Amino acid sequence: MMVRDDWHGKGVDTAMMRAVIDLADKWLNLARIELTVFTDNQSAIALYRKFGFEIEGTHRKYAFRDGDFVDAYAMARIK
Description:
Layout: H1 12-27, E1 32-38, H2 42-50, E2 54-65, E3 68-78
Antiparallel strand pairs: 1-3, 2-3
């Protein structure tokens, strides 16, 4: 999930997550939703925690970004 830079801080990310959670809970009857997020993306991690996601593990050297390997968290929300 990505939000354009000029739309950060305007609630777009929260509205998108609310729609995803509503779809998962009310229409798809999903018991588990998983996601991966870079460990340095604190704003995204805070958003996901707000919707009940928990960190389940760390993918070390998950991706090569800007000349370095970076880690990512595996997060999940279980209903």
